[in-house]
Amino acid sequence: MDAPIGELIRTAREGDGAAAELLFASLYRELHSIAERQLRRGGSNLTLGTTTLLHEAYLKIAAREGVEFADRRHFLSYASRAMRGLTIDYVRRRQARKRGGEFHITSASGDEPAAGSEASAASLEDLSAALDELAAVNPRLAELVDLHFFCGFSLVDLAGMRGVTERTVQRDWRKARLLLHHAMQSP
Question: What is the 8-class DSSP label of residue 101?
Answer without folding.
Answer: S
